[in-house]
Design brief:
Elements (H helix, E strand, L loop, with lengths): L2 H9 L2 H35 L10 E4 L2 E2 L6 E3 L2 E3 L1 H34 L9 H16 L1
Antiparallel strand pairs: 1-4, 2-3
Helix pairs in contact: 2-3
């Protein structure tokens, strides 16, 4: 089997394509949630905490070196951006919550489908004919 043919069989499997679709949708969902956190939730948290923006918090390990005459940065400061890390943790928990809510809703829909009884099947032509014969025999008696 040639390499190209083998790769084509691998790439065209249903589960590989489903996984690719899931990754693309997951990336788009991640952007939506990041926007929700950055643009809606964190400003509200900032107002509630007196205007704190977590992404601004950092530990400076080494100060920047600036040229005294030109004010040009010769060496940028080295920092630990712990506020961005807090922001990422908040993003994660909100994404996890949204996924939990979505999965819970999907599971409830599946349970409703399972509980709904299947409709009675339509009678066959033979059953309809036998019913008519029975009804005619009842009328004669």
């Amino acid at each position: 089997m040639s390499f190209v043919k083998e790769f084509k069989e691998f790439a065209m499997r249903g589960n590989v394509i489903d996984m690719a679709v899931g990754v693309v949708i997951g990336a788009a969902f991640g952007k939506i949630i990041s926007s929700l956190v950055d643009d809606i939730i964190m400003p509200l948290v900032g107002v509630a905490t007196g205007g704190i923006n977590f992404t601004d918090y950092k530990f400076v390990i080494q100060q920047a070196v600036i040229d005294g005459t030109t004010q040009e940065v010769l060496k940028p400061e080295v920092t630990l951006n712990w506020g961005s890390w807090i922001q990422t943790i908040v993003d994660f928990f909100i994404v996890a919550l949204c996924i939990f809510i979505a999965i819970k809703g999907i599971n409830q829909l599946k349970r409703k489908e399972e509980k709904a009884p299947a409709p009675d099947p339509e009678p066959t032509k033979e059953e309809v004919l036998l019913t008519e014969i029975r009804d005619l025999l009842k009328e004669k008696n």
